[in-house]
Write a structure and sequence with these properties.
The protein contains ten helices and eight strands. The strands form two sheets. It has a six-stranded antiparallel beta sheet, sandwiched between helices. Strands 1-2 form a two-stranded antiparallel sheet. α5 packs antiparallel against α9.
Length: about 270
């Protein structure tokens, strides 16, 4: 990990439940020495990526992050395009839907929506990076990535998040083959216990994989009868989103079979 990466990696420690972090907490969370962390924090603050509270001396995300986010959205209005589609999808299926962008070896959440029509809902953390091998959104994006990228990822360390997380590269290869065939991936309790999800890839200009669209459902509401309709809906909206992003969706996908939910639920 290079110096720049180490400094920028500190920004990923912020979350909705941890909006401000002090020097000591940065040291503890990063596992690095105090002098190095302080130097990185100072440089990030001087460049506007962080700002420091005058009284508590804790750090929070700075104005440079807002400026760059606004510039990115102005030049490439991805959030604006996907927000409408995510909301429509969530309302259609009555569950939480989200769109995430492929960022290195993980998925970066961009927008989510939940119609909140059920008493039990899926909690979604907008700051949490989603692993490629343990989420349907990650599997969907990985399935349509290059073979070189797939093998590079599968040869690395595959973290186990729950008892159902797939960490066997061969099992993952079979799951990726199925996801590429049907255009959708599904997992149950692979990242969060009690949560099932269905994801489909999103494509940008030139047919390049850029992210994924997904629906997350409490597993207590998932049955072999209703999972396939979720998949059909996600697939249709992913194609719509890809076109809106200037991409093109694969036309050679295998139609989702009537028994797809049963087979899919047995993947993990």
């Amino acid at each position: 990990m290079g110096t720049i990466t180490k400094a920028l990696d500190l920004l990923n420690l912020f979350s909705a439940t941890q909006p401000e972090i002090g020097l000591g907490e940065f040291v503890r969370l990063s596992g690095r020495d105090k002098a190095t962390v302080h130097r990185h924090l100072t440089e990030l603050t001087e460049n506007g990526y962080l700002e420091q509270d005058f009284e508590s001396r804790a750090y929070r995300l700075g104005p440079a992050v807002l400026r760059l986010a606004a510039l990115r959205e102005t030049l490439f209005p991805t959030r604006k395009i996907l927000s409408r589609i995510v909301v429509e999808l969530s309302q259609k299926v009555g569950e939480l839907a989200h769109a995430s962008l492929l960022q290195s070896n993980a998925m970066s959440p961009l927008v989510h929506a939940d119609p909140c029509v059920h008493g039990v809902q899926v909690h979604f953390d907008i700051a949490e990076m989603l692993p490629l091998h343990a989420t349907s959104s990650g599997l969907a994006a990985l399935a349509f990535s290059s073979k070189e990228f797939q093998e590079q990822f599968l040869s690395g360390e595959l973290t186990r998040f729950t008892d159902s997380t797939i960490t066997d590269p061969d099992v993952l290869r079979r799951a990726l083959h199925d996801a590429r065939s049907y255009g959708v991936a599904t997992l149950t309790a692979a990242f969060d216990d009690g949560v099932s999800s269905v994801g489909a890839p999103l494509f940008g200009p030139g047919g390049r994989i850029v992210g994924s669209l997904s629906v997350a459902i409490p597993s207590i509401r998932v049955t072999p009868e209703n999972l396939r309709p979720f998949a059909v809906a996600v697939l249709a909206y992913a194609e719509q989103a890809s076109i809106a992003l200037g991409g093109r969706f694969p036309k050679d996908l295998t139609p989702i079979p009537n028994d797809w939910p049963i087979a899919a639920l047995q993947v993990d």
